[in-house]
Amino acid sequence: MASGKRTRKASTERLFDVTDDPVVAWADSVAADETRHAEKTYEDFLRLRKHYATLLRRFEQVTRLSDSIQEDLKLLTDSLYEAARKDPLTGLSNRREMLESLATQIRRAERHNEVFSVVLADIDHFKAVNDQHGHEAGDIVLIHVAHQLEQSVREEDICARWGGEEFLICLPHVALAGATSVAEKLRQRIDTRELSVSGSGIHVTASLGVATYQPGDEIDTLVRIADGAMFEAKRRGRNQVYVMDGR
Amino acid sequence: MDKIEIEPTKSSPFVRFDPDDGVMEIGGESYPENSHEFFAPLMAWIAEFLDSKPGSAVLRVTLTYMNTSSTKYMIDILDRLEAAHGAGTPVRVEWYCDADNERTMGTVEELQEDFAMPFDVIPQEF
User: Fold this and answer.
1) What is the total count of domains within chain B?
2) Could you give the CA distance from residue A38 to residue A190 in angstroms, rounded to a whole number?
3) Where residue B43 sits, what CATH number does that domain have?
4) B39 vs A contacts (CB less than 8 Å)
5) What angle do CA B80, B36, B46 make, to 5 degrees?
6) Tens-digit pLDDT profile for chain A (247 aa)?
7) How far is A13 from chain B (nearest CA, A)?
8) Range of B40's domain?
9) Is there a catalytic annotation at residue A165?
10) For chain B, how long is the longest CA-to-CA vector?
């Protein structure tokens, strides 16, 4: 099986215990009562009892096989579900799961008049990290930044790897001012934690753009605004948070 | 009689059986490695509880995944409740089903027809 070798203890207890089955017990008691025997009926009766016991045994085997197959399928389904929604490198949500979360957030915001915000974070000069220290170091930086993001947000917030060195954070129930201060906290945390990769220290920073949902916004609108703000943060010298005016 | 409170695991459901209000609740995902080991103590508790002639007994099922042997044990529990109902104990079953899963709903409704005790099949968004 795809899920690999698992040891599964075989249980010896019967699901269907013939010696404890009411129909079998009844049949036994009738059989034991000689006053109820008519030659032919008695034989038929014993045959019936035998068939019934076989049926129970078969049911037992079917159940055990089903349980075993169902467990394999369940674990496989769970792992596929996980794989389809997580970024394998960083363990964060992937783009697909973030799109689903954003759709849910928008539905909720429309229905209950709620607010939420997104922060788009892009690692500065990431190409230079890869060029200077190699792709493995680049991967370690991505994992490190993902970890910083996860450590700085609340349980209900969702962090995703949005693209190569781009991360999207969704903040339910958080308005623009709150989201801006979360973004600033993220920026500082990334800026102040140097990373050591095989002896050499790597210092990375990030540029962050903030956008808050407004009625009528679609996913694309919201991400485009966060993206524009992030680019403006880059243009203004990187390692900073930017919020678009007029929104 | 003591309460039963079992926390869910990845493959076994949560269980809350309370002799004081007579509510027996089981929910979550049920495909335990050894279903006999899991269900035998529950069956024993239910037998003892029903033998005590309680003022009422409510079984509330909110399982979202059941393997075959778990299903078998759930039906055994229903049989036990039906017997208590026949003996005069006020019994009620509330079986919550995923509203999106017609096949499961249909099967539980078929099961419901086999019993004389009050038995509600309640569609729910899981």
Assistant:
1) 1
2) 90
3) 3.30.750.24
4) none
5) 30
6) 344 445 556 566 777 778 888 888 888 888 888 888 887 888 888 888 998 999 999 999 999 999 999 999 999 999 999 999 999 999 999 999 999 999 999 999 999 999 999 999 999 999 999 999 999 999 999 999 999 999 999 999 999 999 999 999 999 999 999 999 999 999 999 999 988 887 888 999 999 999 999 999 999 999 999 999 999 999 999 999 999 866 6
7) 7
8) 4-124
9) yes
10) 39
